[in-house]
Design brief:
It is globular and about 40 Å long. Helix 4 (123-137) links the parallel strand 6 and strand 7 (141-146). A seven-stranded mixed β-sheet has the order 3-4-5-2-1-6-7, with helices on both faces. The protein has helices spanning 19-29, 60-73, 86-96, 123-137; strands at residues 2-7, 12-17, 34-36, 47-50, 53-57, 99-104, 141-146. The protein has four helices and seven strands; from the N terminus they run E-E-H-E-E-E-H-H-E-H-E. It starts with a strand and ends with a strand. By secondary structure, the chain is an alpha/beta fold. Helix 2 (60-73) packs across helix 3 and helix 2 (60-73) runs parallel beside helix 4 (123-137).
């Protein structure tokens, strides 16, 4: 579960990464996530749509690809790849933000675990810490909270 709050001077954008988290938010809002299949590719799952939420994505695949895109583009929004998929859209949200607040759940999804790593090391946590470290190097204001 990742909940990203990207703040600009004039607006707060809410991004939810993770299917279970998206469904929890949808339930709280009394809605169902509407999948936008036009954003699906062979490599990327589709984004979802919820009122009041700017972007709803799958978690691990999307964030991994987003980190790759940010590094390849050197955090230059003008160098983001063309295309409308969750990873590009997430990268754009991050680059347009003045400050970023990550709320990261700590429940381990066994599906995404490497059997060679100790049980308490989550791929999600490593992925987010890599992203946050990279954004700090690029002078982004980033806060992370584990919940």
């Amino acid at each position: 579960m990742i909940n990203l709050r990207a703040e600009t001077v004039s607006k707060i954008n809410e991004v939810v990464c993770g299917g279970t988290t998206g469904n929890i938010v949808a339930s709280f809002l009394g809605e169902t996530i509407e999948m936008d299949l036009t954003t699906m590719t062979k490599e990327m799952p589709p984004i979802g749509k919820l009122s009041g939420i700017d972007l709803v994505t799958e978690e691990i695949i999307t964030i991994s690809k987003c980190v790759e895109i940010l590094k390849t583009s050197n955090c230059d929004i003008g160098r983001l790849p063309a295309g409308k998929n969750g990873a590009v859209m997430l990268a754009k949200e991050i680059l347009e933000a003045d400050s970023i607040f990550f709320m990261v759940g700590q429940k381990i999804n066994e599906f995404y675990q490497n059997p060679l790593l100790p049980k308490n090391i989550s791929i999600r946590r490593s992925l987010i810490e890599d992203l946050v470290q990279y954004l700090w190097k690029k002078q982004k204001e980033v806060t992370i909270e584990y919940c």
